[in-house]
Amino acid sequence: MFPPRGSGRAGTPLLPAEPAVVRTFRSEHRIQRQLKPDRPSNRPEPQGIDNPQRYMSGLIAMPGRTDRGIRRGAPDPQRDRDRPDGPPSPGLRPRRPGMSARPTSGLLALVVLAFGSGYFLSYFFRNVNAVLSPLIVAQFELNATQIGLLTSAFFLSGAIIVIPVAILLDRVGPRRVLIGQFLITSAGAAIFATGTTATALLLGRALLGLGVAGCLATAFKGVTVWFPRDRWATGNALVLAVGSLGAIAGTQPLQWLLTLVTWREVFVICACVSLAMAAVAHFLLPDRNAEPETAAPRGVYRHVLALPVFWRLMPMVSLSLAAFFAIQGLWANAWMSDVAGLSQSQIGGRLLLMAGAMSCGMLINGTLADRLTGLGVPPAAMMTTGFAGLLLAQAALAFELAPQAWWPWALMGYAGNIGALGYPLISRRFPLRESARAMSAVAVMGFAFSFALQFGFGGILDLWGRDPSGAYPAEAYRAALGTLLALQSAALLWFVTSRDVWGEARYDRVLP
Questions:
Q1: Cβ distance 246 to 119 under 8 Å?
Q2: Which CATH architecture has domain 105-502?
Q3: Out of 150, 321, 390, 464, which could bridge 476 as a Cys pair, Cβ 3.0 to 4.6 Å?
Q4: Using CA atoms, how far apart are residues 279 and 212, in angstroms rounded to an integer?
């Protein structure tokens, strides 16, 4: 038996006196154990430095212990091995007992900037044909179906790449995936800039889709990795707001740029910017340690497809985003020119208004969603209101309620991305290491619907054909927009009649 601490016979080395904080903790712990007998619990025992009792009993080295030659805040292999999320990454504050590591505000700003830049290019290339389509149609003599196929190839390649991107995101992390996306985007922009046939343009457009169409999933993964769980909606909104500036750049600012350079030189500039962003992501964006996988990709997708809430969310979220992308990315310009009779400068102003309203909507809707869900309001209530506003704006175009008014474009822009609020309802049901694959199951349907609606819109217009002035008749646009309205109305009815959707009261509530 060891003698009591701090006492002993002469010549016997005394044990070091126990720190006061340890004595206090042990005394309080013994009292609590006497007052509260052990109860069976299904909750796993906290591991690593989140378990103060194991620290105080000496089983794990506490941060900053000097008897092992460890400086406070210095890497400790034993401590890092016991962390549930591995060693700390650059930019993370050192974790203390009872606290989880949180990234600094500067690192969060860098994350938003880096991933928002990828989504900026995604939105720019997605909507650039809304301004360039008259020039491309005139130069290559394309009809509505052909220009619709050329533009929608972006979404087709996006539907193909989004699941592989999601698997890579969960395995290697968002930083490395983002670098590869920038490099592919640069190659696609270079091919589009130098293409001399419609086939070459189609190839370049498809590569652009492979490069940047998955940037939304990459951005959402970056948010789930770096932001606290209760701020995922806000983080998504910040990234979407930065990315939506690409939609703004693809409207009137692009028209102004075309007065100085040709459309081919625009894509050369974009290729150089993509290369520069790849370098920025490589040298400035720190990497976060990836968690080991516990489920095969097929297992994750089987789990997603087995969720009732997925089948209620997917049609409305995917169709609303697809209809908005189809109109904003191509057919808004054609409708305003053929039906409303507006000039290109007037069209550019309305496209700019829609993009600006979309940017505000992304930022406001995400923050408002966090506030409302904190008060117990289901996210489905806000999503339903946004879907109704989007349908109203499209109905105003279909029935020519106000052909030259500004408000339908502002309303459509504000509510166009309301479906993005549905992504956290799916991703929060999965561990962090599987969240990208969970979100990609919804994203792939959105890209597939976007391709079908944008391509099909042009096919419907060609059923009527052009009039002698080269414009499509208003009846053709009414039929195409009416088809979009019918599909979305059916999906909205399916959405609002679901108990699974309305039972989702919070984004951060962990469900089985």
A1: yes
A2: Up-down Bundle (1.20)
A3: 464
A4: 16
